[in-house]
Amino acid sequence: MRGWWQEIADLVLPADCAGCGRPGVPLCDRCHGALRGSGARRVPGPVPPGLPVVHAAMDYVDEARAVLLAHKERGALRLAGPLGEALAGAVRAAAGGALPRAPGDPPLLLVPVPSARRAVGARGHDPARRIAFAAAGVLRREGCRARVPGVLRQRRRVTDQSGLGALQRRENVTGALEVVPGGGRLLVAGPVVLVDDLMTTGASLAEAARAVAEAGGQVVGGAVVAAPQAPPSRSPGRLRPFASDKRN
To answer: Which of 164, 186, 214, 225 could form a disulfide with 149 if both were Cys (CB 3.0 to 4.6 A apart)?
Structure first.
């Protein structure tokens, strides 16, 4: 119920810019422009074992952070479009030569890192999955065959990642994901780019890569909308929490 009510309200109610607060528009031209990043490679510190090469569309600061928070935590669902455009740029960088454009090329598979069911229920939507579909739409309009197979799920409960250190996050999510029954045959259809809205330590993406590889998928990279400017602390202690970190 909450999900479709959010979508109706998002369409008919007045909105301020999610990035800067300018009245009358859900996203002003300046903030929309701030989401058009270059898809730069990001390396967290320490790098969790099994993490593929990850590209981020932008830094997790200022307007980008505000827009991600508005979409993820406040249900501003119309922002999935511009966030999908940003993610598509990171996917292009992550896929490189694997972008399928010629007839007969296998499709590019954008596999979202799943949120926990309780988080999806609380928010009314799955942010990474919604943005992945928007990104796939952008790529298809450019002539790239892109699909979003929702093949990953959590097989056990994990602790909220916010505030955990890098090693604690890795321990928290190791072995937590699996491919749904029958998902393996979807994953072998083409190269896989793992996608998410935000990367901090990379633990969730590394665990997703493990689960996909065990099911026979070929992970060629990871793509996220945003990542912090500087690598997280190398200490196994607590990180400064990000309000929009994936809550599992």
So the answer is: 186
